[in-house]
Amino acid sequence: MLLDLKGFSTSTQNATRSLDRIGKKMQRVGSTLTVGLTAPLAAFGAVALKNFDKQAKAIAQVNQGLKTTGGLVGFTTEQLQAQASALQSNSLFGDEVILKDATAQLLTFTNIAGEQFSRTQLAALDLATRLDGDLKSASIQLGKALNDPIANLSALSRSGIQFSTSQKSTIKALAETNRLADAQTIILNELEKQYGGSAKAAAEAGLGPLTQLKNILGDITEDFGGI
Q: Long-range contacts: 137-142, Cβ < 8 Å, 24+?
């Protein structure tokens, strides 16, 4: 049987060209897949690292505050982080913001501890939410007033937080007789009466639930960033 070498050569060339075309198409597909998969993963990784960095730095500030004050607040860093997480679930603030702008700031006021500290953190969130201000400023303002009511209570009044003449006299008398915790209770009770529930209400209204979802997703990316 004689072979048609010419026809065989033509067929071989056609097959080679077809494989060439297929190869180039596969390269283009591979390139597209690489961009389509790698780019989003790289972007996710960058966000995860950024969120992890924010959280780590916030915790570092809390830890430093505990160290410099000798833990006078009465809570461990784990307990304070748990409080921040709980506050996040009832506000528009992420836990890393709470740790940095509320917890770490309030730790500098060594006369605020225990239950009063926890109540002050929540009061700061309510105040910042109602007055549409920033959490750090609200925390420092409340910290000053609760740490030394005699010198700084009037600053709260200038910000619209009202105390009766009788309340002011009682708060001053309690502070002067070393019953600071009792004086703080009066202040916090009045703050809760005027601003209590503001942070929670904002978290439940309008786009609040979406903000909370964003904060939860942020927590997840923090874990990935750590990894």
A: 139/101, 139/102, 139/105, 139/106, 140/105, 142/106, 142/191
Q: How far is CA 156 from the centre of its chain?
A: 26
**Positive or negative torsion for Cα 121, 86, 212, 50:** positive
What are the angstrom distances between the C-alpha of 10 and each of 3, 31, 136, 210?
13, 32, 79, 64
pLDDT tens digit sequence for 10-52: 666 665 666 676 666 556 556 555 656 566 666 767 777 888 8
* 3-class secondary structure, 113: coil
Q: How far, rounded to the nearest angstrom, does the alpha carbon of residue 98 sit from its chain's CA centroid?
A: 6
- Residues 185-217 pLDDT 10s: 999 999 999 999 999 999 999 999 999 888 888
DSSP of 11-50, one letter per residue?
A: HHHHHHHHHHHHHHHHHHHHHHHHHHHHHHHHHHHHHHHH
Question: Rounded to an integer, what distance in angstroms lies between the CA atom of residue 157 and that of residue 164?
Answer: 10
91 neighbors 202 (Cβ within 8 angstroms): yes
Answer whether 105's CB lies under 8 Å from 141's CB: no
